């Protein structure tokens, strides 16, 4: 499994788009042998595996180029600069990898990544990602619905929330040698948010295995929330009755709430959230309610005051 993206592995965006169009036209391949999709994804250096179908939940907006997606990152475990993760994340050992499942469920335990992935068909989800700092990207993720995994783990009736943790290992993650955040990085979702069909676990992007700086080998993607909810390099999933306290809530509870839904009408205390800069574009564009996924997710928050529950 490649741990580093070599220059020769990088697919130019134009080639990728062309290939994707071909796939849309001719693709009847998927459906067969999907259990092997992960193996083929891991082997794919340049080409998109033929059995990864594009989800209907995808946006058709222009993709952010691969080079931007993989060199302009937030991953504080590797430093706070946008270029630090691309420079330092090669230290992360992603194979073997396991995920520990704890708390309110019938199937706790430590699972090898392969066993987590085996029953799930991988699909492509092209989502907007909107960072709380005011920039956004459009990224073709490869993953599967988190809800499908949660069903396998059989949460109990007491499971009201899901908490996630990133690896804590200052040897591999030099940013953890400084107390920038209370490590390990923790995030959480309410159970209905976690079960929502838009919420995915991603293991790749641009048809290739996840680059370390983007959260290899497995990360969350919640497209209607600010980017920091989409926790990277997950090693623990815990079902809880109590609302999790995320690392960002601990660091600054007045600035980062539990919900963190993209909302142009509720400013961050230190800056406006009304507009955003799409990476690669010059003019800012308006930020959309729930990052443009209002139709799909507004119902989750009906009756809630989104100024109070920010
Ligand atoms: N473990 C961990 N996950 C993290 C972060 C982090 O610092 N550590 N940064 C978050 C933030 S602020 C953003 S905007 C997204 C960025 O994802 P990307 O670099 O793949 O675009 O990752 C999120 N997940
Ligand atoms: Mo972010």
From TrEMBL:
Q: Which PROSITE patterns match?
A: TAT (PS51318)
**Which reaction equation describes what this protein catalyses?**
L-methionyl-[protein] + a quinone + H2O = L-methionyl-(R)-S-oxide-[protein] + a quinol; L-methionyl-[protein] + a quinone + H2O = L-methionyl-(S)-S-oxide-[protein] + a quinol
Q: Which SUPFAM superfamilies match?
A: Oxidoreductase molybdopterin-binding domain
As for PTM, the annotation reads: Predicted to be exported by the Tat system. The position of the signal peptide cleavage has not been experimentally proven.
KW Cytoplasm (keyword) present: no
- Provide this UniProt record's keywords sorted from A to Z: Metal-binding, Molybdenum, Oxidoreductase, Signal
PANTHER family in UniProt: PROTEIN-METHIONINE-SULFOXIDE REDUCTASE, PROTEIN-METHIONINE-SULFOXIDE REDUCTASE CATALYTIC SUBUNIT MSRP
Protein family membership: Belongs to the MsrP family.
The protein's assembly and partners: Heterodimer of a catalytic subunit (MsrP) and a heme-binding subunit (MsrQ).
Name of the molecule in the record: Protein-methionine-sulfoxide reductase catalytic subunit MsrP
Lineage at the top is: Bacteria, Pseudomonadati, Pseudomonadota, Gammaproteobacteria, Thiohalobacterales
- The coding gene here is msrP
């Amino acid at each position: 499994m490649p741990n580093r993206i070599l220059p020769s592995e990088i697919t130019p965006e134009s080639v990728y788009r062309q290939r994707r169009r071909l796939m849309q036209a001719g693709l009847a391949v998927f459906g067969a042998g999907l259990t092997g999709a992960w193996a083929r994804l891991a082997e794919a250096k340049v080409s998109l595996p033929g059995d990864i179908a594009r989800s209907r939940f995808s946006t058709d907006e222009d993709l952010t180029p691969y080079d931007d997606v993989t060199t302009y990152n937030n991953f504080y475990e590797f430093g706070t600069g946008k270029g630090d993760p691309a420079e330092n994340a090669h230290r992360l050992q992603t194979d073997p990898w396991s995920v520990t499942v704890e708390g309110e469920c019938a199937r706790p335990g430590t699972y090898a990544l392969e066993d987590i992935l085996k029953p799930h068909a991988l699909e492509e989800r092209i989502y907007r990602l909107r960072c709380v700092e005011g920039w956004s990207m459009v990224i073709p993720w490869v993953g599967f619905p988190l809800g499908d995994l949660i069903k396998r783990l059989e949460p109990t009736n007491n499971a009201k929330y899901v908490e996630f943790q990133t690896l804590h290992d200052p040897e591999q993650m030099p940013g953890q040698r400084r107390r920038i955040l209370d490590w390990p990085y923790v995030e959480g979702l309410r159970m209905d948010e976690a079960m929502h069909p838009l919420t995915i676990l991603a293991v790749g992007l641009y048809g290739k295995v996840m680059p370390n700086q983007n959260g290899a080998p497995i990360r969350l993607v919640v497209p209607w929330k600010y980017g920091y909810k989409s926790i990277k390099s997950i090693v623990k999933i815990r079902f809880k009755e109590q609302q999790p306290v995320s690392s960002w809530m601990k660091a600054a509870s007045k600035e980062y709430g539990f919900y963190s839904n993209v909302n142009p009408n509720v400013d961050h205390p230190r800056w406006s959230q009304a507009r955003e800069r799409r990476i690669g574009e010059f003019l800012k564009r308006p930020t959309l309610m729930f990052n443009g996924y209002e139709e799909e997710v507004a119902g989750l928050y009906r009756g809630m005051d989104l100024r109070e529950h920010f």
